[in-house]
Amino acid sequence: MKLFVPKEGGGETRVALSPDMVKKLGTLGFEVTVEKGAGAASRITDSAFEAAGAKVGSAAGTADVILKVRRPSPAEAAKYKKGALVLASMDPYGNEKDVEAMAKAGISAFAMEFMPRITRAQSMDVLSSQANLAGYQAVIEAAAHFDRALPMMMTAAGTVPAAKVFVMGAGVAGLQAIATARRLGAVVTATDVRAAAGEQVASLGAKFIMTDALKDASGEGGYARELTDDEKKAQADLVAGHIAKQDIVITTALIPGRPAPKLVTKEMVASMAPGSVIVDLAVERGGNVEGAKAGAVADISGVRIIGFENMAGRIPASASLLYAKNLVTFLETMIDKEKKELSLDLEDELVKATLLTHDGAVVHPNFAKAKAPAKPAAAKKAEPKKEGGDA
Ligand SMILES: NC(=O)c1ccc[n+]([C@@H]2O[C@H](COP(=O)([O-])OP(=O)(O)OC[C@H]3O[C@@H](n4cnc5c(N)ncnc54)[C@H](O)[C@@H]3O)[C@@H](O)[C@H]2O)c1
To answer: Which atom of ligand 1 is closest in space to residue 200's alpha carbon?
Structure first.
């Protein structure tokens, strides 16, 4: 079996392989080729890959498996061998043309972000591994843009008070942001709309804040549901009073299949003291904060709003390590270990959830077009299946 890892384009700093995973792939029966310089931005040299047993060069047209961070462009996909398995974060919503191009290229494209969040797949969960690092990095970026210290410091020259950090959304990224801010000595509060998050927040030594008007907004699969208008107002009232007293706010709130909820209004931003910092981790999904600019730091009356995209990509050496492990662990489930050959089980729930294209067609239920009616007599136009929403 041949496996190829291309160098990512478009400013992506991560790579879908690590030297440890090259060794692991070797034991599974893979001959691994890595494109020259693929790991450079993650500080993995070509010689480190070679020392682990990989070749440096190109095998785009001959590889049976391709590991990537980002979805291949139609031009890249067209170069891959028909039938090749391609594992990446495919970001297919809004990019349906590219999905069709992958189908046309005859590759089997897996969207790693659709991995079900079940115990068996925990070590393959790219959303969690990257969100964890993003939550950490959000606090590091906030600290770097903050003009004061985070911990309380009692010195001979006087006392510096601890910074107040408020985390909105206590999922994977939010919990790591809380833990990181606590490690740096900040006084941390957090909010979420899922009641279950309260205990997790408290276990990290932070105070959980939630309005009485909102009992629990847990939705399907342990994710949040969208709030009703009354609930949104109650939450906004609670946040408005609290946020004015905060030094740093980190927002991470997402609702599957919906744009990110707007949680911080421009009035709330204006209520914060100059020198305060907000990090909007949801900026790629529309943002939680009014005035946040994707890919930039906005300054609104002295309050800095950090809208960096790809926060995990700002800590690429760690992010690549975890990402590569996620991909290789999933790939391992698709290998017949005795025969040392690929064996794709289309009935496996992990495959069903992630497979976008196969055998020349778009096969994922959220993207496959409805079949045309069989008989011309029933010539009513077939309704396309509704698209949108995270799997
Ligand atoms: N393998 C697993 O079983 C697994 C892995 C990861 C996460 N999970 C679960 O998934 C859930 C969330 O994970 P995630 O971090 O990927 O979620 P996410 O990235 O979709 O959302 C981030 C957080 O924002 C919160 N949120 C949504 N709307 C909000 C609002 N209006 N105000 C405040 N907060 C709001 C959500 O409740 C969530 O905690 C948790 O229950 C977590 O335990 C399970």
So the answer is: 43
* Interatomic CA distance for residues 10 and 250, integer angstroms: 26
Closest C-alpha to ligand 1, atom 3: 117
Kindly indicate the confidence band of residue 386, based on its pLDDT and cuts at 50, 70 and 90.
very low
| Contact 282 CB / ligand 1 (< 6 Å) | no
Query: Which residues lie closer than 8 Å to 212 by C-beta, 6 or more apart?
Result: none
Distance in angstroms (rounded) separating the CA atoms of residues 218 and 209: 16
Nearest CA to ligand 1 atom 19: 254
Cα(61)–Cα(381) distance, rounded to whole angstroms?
39
Q: What is the pLDDT of residues 60-113, one digit of tens each?
A: 999 999 999 999 999 999 999 999 999 999 999 989 999 999 999 999 999 999
Which part of the chain has CATH 3.40.50.720? 2-114+316-378, 139-314
159 or 390, which is more confident: 159
- Token pair, residue 158, equals 């006087």
Length of the chain as a residue count:
391
Q: Which atom of ligand 1 is nearest to the CA of 170?
A: 39
For domain 2-114+316-378, give the CATH number: 3.40.50.720
Residue nearest to atom 2 of ligand 1 (CA): 117
Please tell us whether the domain made up of 139-314 is placed in CATH 3.40.50.720: yes
How many C-beta atoms surround the C-beta of residue 203 within 10 A? 11
Does residue 222 have its Cβ closer than 6 Å to ligand 1? yes
Active site residues: 117, 122, 125, 128, 223
Q: Report the pLDDT value the prediction gives residue 353, as an integer from 0 to 100.
A: 97
* CB within 8 Å of 18: residues ≥ 6 apart: 39, 44, 320, 321, 324, 325
Give the Cα separation of 9 and 12 in Å (integer). Answer: 6
